Amino acid sequence: MIDPHLPYSEQLRRRADRLGTMCVHAGESPGADGALDPAIVMSSAFAFTSAEHAARAFRGEDDDTWIYGRWGNPTVRALEHKLAALEGAEAACATSSGMAAIAGVLLANCEAGDHIVAPRSMYAESARLLRERLPKLGITTTFVERSREAYAEAVTEKTRLFYVETPSNPTLGIVDIQAIVELARSLETGACGARGRPRVIVDGTFATPFAQTPLALGADLVMHSMTKGLSGHGDVIGGAVMGSRALVDAAQEAIVKGFGGVLAPLSAWLVARGLRTFALRQERACATAAELAAALAAHARVAVVHHPSLASHPGHALAQRQMHAYGAVLSFELRAEAGVDAVDQGRKVLEALRVATHAVSLGDVRTLVVHPASTTHSTMPAETRRLGGITDGLFRVSCGLESSGDLRADFDQALER
Ligand code: PLP
């Protein structure tokens, strides 16, 4: 879906143009008082007009009736319409964080005895959920390489979910979504017991719907940390689940109603405000990421750069086929120097940066740089980190909206020290 014969900047412009109107208008219409922005409805409970009205609402016969903030809220609902439009989904459910979305989807789709297949290299907290927390509930996971063959080999008659994170955090590994969907569909009859084929769930946080739309490739559900590129300003924690009405409703019942992972109305309003400029922000951040990746790849102090825009990236051709853009996050490794400690060397580079900010998270207006081995992925066992390619000299960079030239100069001067 990325045409190698067109300049990348032109592809980004076209993608932004395709989403621009949706970003501004989807899910929004002036309120009764004419206010253009949706109201931030802060009420925890809503009045019924009659006993019959209340009874109808509880029987689920009245879509327009609000009952209680954990069961639904007009500000959150407006955001969900916008999210569904951007992802091309039938339905969306906003949640209190990305982890609430992920944990809820796993628990809504699995029960004791079930089995999940997931990639070895992924966001550490999601991996920890699968590796440490779910086994206590009788739900086990096999961690595999990113290929269809590896997923296929791990299948048992108890396999309920194929978990995909693409591009992966922090090494930007690309999983072939369509191949995993085809594998799941080939198991439609029998191989996975009476409950049917495994479902394909995709954490699309690194791509955002600007760069990738997994539902169009056949995935069953997409999960996002809205804390990142969707809200885009680093001022909110939130998550989302998108997919068919039936699967999203089931996830919403579990995550929001059952486990209480409700998004606050103010947070929903902030995400919706961020989304109005989503396409423009992503157009610029994705362009900067590709420019910075190319500049770092040419730098003598850098051993390797992980970004699917680079022809040297093992997922480059696949990313061209399945993505609309290469995304705004990259990672790179410093070239090892004899007698120099990789972590110490990395610390010096981080401390020398002046434009990029040393902080966790991603998808912010600010460019954020982090050292995964000592921070975001420190809870992952060292051997698992090594197998997942997360070396001690690896940095993750989430490109923001600063001038691309200023950023390249900033990394240049920090690497020269
Ligand atoms: N998924 C990925 C790929 C992430 O990088 C993160 C957070 O960094 C999450 C999920 C969790 O999101 P949240 O922090 O909003 O719970």
Q: How many separate domains?
A: 2
Cα shape: globular
Strand content: 5-15%
Task: Give the strand line-up of the largest sheet.
Answer: 1-7-6-5-4-2-3
Biggest beta sheet summary: 7 strands, mixed
Tell me briefly what this model is.
By secondary structure, the chain is α/β, with parallel strands linked by helices. Helix content is 40%, strand content 14%.
List the defining traits of the structure above.
417 residues; alpha/beta; Aspartate Aminotransferase, domain 2; Aspartate Aminotransferase, domain 1; 7-stranded mixed beta sheet; 15 helices
Write a structural description.
This protein is an alpha/beta fold and 417 residues long. It folds into two domains: 18-275, 3-Layer(aba) Sandwich (Aspartate Aminotransferase, domain 2); 279-416, Aspartate Aminotransferase, domain 1. Helix content is 40%, strand content 14%. The chain contains 15 helices and twelve strands. It has helices spanning 8-25, 51-58, 74-87, 98-109, 124-133, 148-154, 177-186, 208-211, 245-258, 265-275, 278-297, 316-322, 342-352, 382-387, 404-416; strands at residues 91-95, 115-119, 140-144, 159-165, 199-203, 221-225, 239-243, 302-306, 329-334, 357-358, 368-370, 394-398. A seven-stranded mixed sheet has the order 1-7-6-5-4-2-3, sandwiched between helices. The chain has a five-stranded mixed sheet with strand order 8-9-12-11-10. Helix 8 (208-211) links the parallel strand 5 and strand 6. The longest helix is centred in the C-terminal third of the chain and has 20 residues, at 278-297. The protein is globular, with a radius of gyration of 22 Å. It starts with 7 loop residues before the first helix and ends with a helix. The mean pLDDT is 95. The chain binds pyridoxal-5'-phosphate (PLP).
